[in-house]
Amino acid sequence: MDIKTENATDNPEEYAAISLKFTYVPSYPDEAPIVEVADSENLSDPDIEDLMEFLQSIIQENLGMVMVYTIVSEASEWLSKRLVTVISEKKKAEELRIQQAEEEERVRLQY
Question: Which domain covers residue 90, as residue numbers?
């Protein structure tokens, strides 16, 4: 199952995508399906680990019920939130870098 976020900005490179592979076990939905990340784009390994931990909690909450749609929906929402966080962190880092450069320039011009 491929999941891709919408572009959060005008930059076409600012998106996240993941491909989840589901393997059903004989006793599904009483037992969890096996969920694996087959591929990802614009996500770090720690991001993928965080997502998988989150999805495991969703799976545990939904044992006994058909859950693949719920897992995919929750993964999509998680990706969107993570993308907004990453973009915000990049923006703050860039603003800080600009402020530091301006401060260094002011100090340099004072002497």
Answer: 2-110
Domain CATH number, residue 19: 3.10.110.10
Q: How far apart are CA 8 and CA 58, in angstroms?
A: 25
Helix (H, G, I), strand (E, B) or coil at 66: coil
pTM: predicted TM-score of the whole model, two decimal places = 0.78
User: What domain count does the chain have?
Assistant: 1
CA distance 81 to 97: 24
State the Cα–Cα distance between residues 40 and 17, nearest whole angstrom: 5
Q: What number of other Cβ atoms are within 10 A of residue 88's Cβ? A: 11
Q: Which tens digits make up the pLDDT trace of 56-107?
A: 999 999 999 999 999 999 999 999 999 888 888 888 999 999 999 999 888 8
Most distant pair of Cα atoms in the chain: their distance: 75
Q: What are phi and psi of 98, to 5 degrees?
A: -65, -45
DSSP string, 71-83: HHHHHHHHHHHHH
Q: How confident is the model at residue 28 (pLDDT cuts 50, 70, 90)?
A: very high
